[in-house]
Each structure stands twice: as structure tokens, then as C-alpha cells.
Design a protein that fits this description.
Layout lengths: L8 E5 L4 H12 L3 E6 L15 H10 L3 E6 L5 H15 L5 E4 L19 H29 L3 E5 L11 H21 L5 E6 L6 H7 L22 H12 L11 E3 H8 L11 H8 L8
Helix pairs in contact: 1-2, 1-7, 3-4, 4-5, 7-8
């Protein structure tokens, strides 16, 4: 099999499950060394109380042809973030080619259907610490490794390609912040040959979402009875393939500062989802909600 990223080193921050794990596995399949960083470990779960672990994710990288390295770290703690990149520097001779910022953990903190003043302020602020402040620290410590080699790709995983309101103030603020961070970091990093951009999946058929709908990947369409829009969902593998396509593109710098989507990149780079389909959340949204701006 082709290994377009053989010899490259990646860090997936928030790589335990969902999009992050799928991205780590896709990078491994493409031949990369992948550091999978997160809180959920065989030594103990994170507050998410999910069964997936960083060790499982890292082993999946190796099984697919890369080299997976699990790093247990609370990425809201600066010392943990600094230690992560010191480990990369020490073990890889300072080489870092790809950074995926996918730290989230905000689902149990999000209160849908309530105005912001009726929601938990503590939860809303914690969401910003988890999904915004952590990413700022991660990028801060990763940037010098990129700059030292005058190359690198930094991807902010978000929700939506635009700045439209996402139905919850705190959630919206976190997701839009990722888009603007990518835009701003792209401007600062451009003189050093480093590319930053934002990338969104569509309706993600993650492990947690499958559990929520009480289905598996084999019978996922049964979830449409609970949520009709689930019919347009995509597996986490789709965004993994999008990341590999970007990382393997010698002209990726042309996309610096942009907010991109799995469905758009699938057409540009001609890749499909795990089941051979080509989900297009943008087209589905436009057809289902005509005239609404949304966040696509």
C-alpha cells in the first residue's frame, strides 16, 4: 500500500475517540509516527466516562502500518502540554510535521434549547477551557518545532465552515474560535513555511453518537427514526481521509487560513467514506433548510 506520509511525525491532541482517533488511524495507515494525546487511558477514564482509550487508539495506528505512541495528558494543564512536545522533541529529534487540534469533551457540558443565561455558567466556561484555551497552549508549544524546520501543517478540527450561530452560545463560541484561531495562526506562521487551517466533518457518526441513537455502524440507519438528519451522517474515517489528503498535498499551503469541509475535500481529492459513499452535508443542509445560513 502507498505510504504518502512515511517518515512524518504527527501529534493528534484529543485522539482517543471519534474524529481524533480516526485521524490518528488514517495517519498511521499513511505511514506516519503518531502521538495520540488525551485523558482517557487504561489507567483510568476521563470525566467523559467513555470506554475508548489512548492506548487503543495508538495500537490502532501501529496495526495500520504506522507507529502509534500513547501519551496520557490533561491538555488543559500547561505543564502536560509542554511535556508532550518536549517528548516529541526528545524522541523525534525535534521533528514535527502535523498537528491535529481535536480537543473537545464538550458534549456533556452543552445544554441545548436554553438561552445562555439559563445555562450553567461554570459548564460554559469549562467548555472554553477545554476546547479553546487548551488548543492555544498546544499550538503555542508546537509552533517552535514547526518553525525550526520551516515546515508543518496545523489543523483545527471544528464544526461548520462559517461563522453562523450554532444554537448554543458556548458551543458556538468554541467552534467559531477554532476557525478564527486557524485563520490567525495561518497569518503568523506563513512567513515560516507553516500552514494552519480549519477542517469540519459533517454530521459525525462517532461511537458516542451511535451509542446515543442505540445503534451500531452495521444498523446505523435505524437511528433515522430518532433523528431524520442522521441519514446524511458520515463515519469518522471520512475526516481521517481528508486529513491525509491535505497532509500529502505539496500545495496545501495554498489553503492556509481557510475553513474546509470533508464533503468539499472529498470532491477535490476524490476520496470516499468507509462504506464507499460520498456524504455531502453541505448539499444536504442547503436542500433541507433552504434559505438558512446555518454554519455550512
Amino acid at each position: 500500500m502507498s505510504k504518502p506520509l512515511a517518515g512524518q511525525v504527527a501529534v493528534v491532541a484529543g485522539g482517543t475517540r471519534g474524529a481524533g482517533r480516526a485521524i490518528a488511524w488514517a495517519l498511521g495507515e499513511a505511514g506516519a509516527v503518531v502521538y495520540v494525546a488525551g485523558r482517557s487511558s487504561r489507567a483510568g477514564p476521563s470525566p467523559m466516562q467513555r470506554p475508548e482509550t489512548i492506548e487503543d487508539a495508538a495500537e490502532g495506528v501501529t496495526e495500520r502500518g504506522g507507529t502509534g505512541i500513547a501519551v496520557r495528558a490533561d491538555l488543559m494543564v500547561e505543564e502536560n502540554v509542554q511535556s508532550l512536545f518536549e517528548q516529541v522533541r526528545r524522541e523525534q529529534g525535534g521533528q514535527l510535521d502535523i498537528l491535529i487540534n481535536d480537543v473537545w469533551g464538550g458534549d456533556p457540558l452543552t445544554e441545548w434549547g436554553k438561552p445562555f443565561w439559563e445555562q450553567s455558567l461554570a459548564n460554559g466556561l469549562l467548555m472554553q477551557r477545554q476546547a479553546v484555551h487548551s488548543r492555544l497552549m498546544i499550538s503555542h508549544y508546537a509552533a517552535p518545532l514547526f518553525i525550526a524546520r520551516s515546515k508543518g501543517l496545523l489543523i483545527e478540527v471544528t464544526d461548520g465552515v462559517g461563522y453562523g450561530y450554532r444554537g448554543n452560545l458556548y458551543y458556538s463560541l468554541a467552534k467559531i474560535s477554532s476557525i478564527h484561531m486557524a485563520e490567525a495562526m495561518a497569518a503568523d506562521l506563513k512567513p515560516y513555511g507553516v500552514t494552519a487551517l480549519a477542517l469540519t466533518p459533517g454530521f459525525l457518526r462517532s461511537e458516542a453518537m451511535l451509542d446515543y441513537f442505540g445503534v451500531t455502524e452495521e444498523n446505523w440507519r435505524d437511528g433515522v427514526a430518532k433523528e431524520p438528519h442522521f441519514i446524511a451522517s458520515e463515519t469518522p474515517a471520512y475526516i481521517g481521509r481528508a486529513v491525509v489528503a491535505l497532509a500529502a498535498d505539496p500545495q496545501v499551503a495554498d489553503k492556509a487560513g481557510q475553513s474546509l469541509s470533508t464533503w468539499g475535500l472529498s470532491e477535490e481529492y476524490d476520496f470516499v467514506d468507509a462504506d464507499g459513499s460520498r456524504p455531502h452535508w453541505g448539499r444536504y443542509f442547503a436542500a433541507t433548510f433552504p434559505g438558512e445560513k446555518g454554519n455550512v
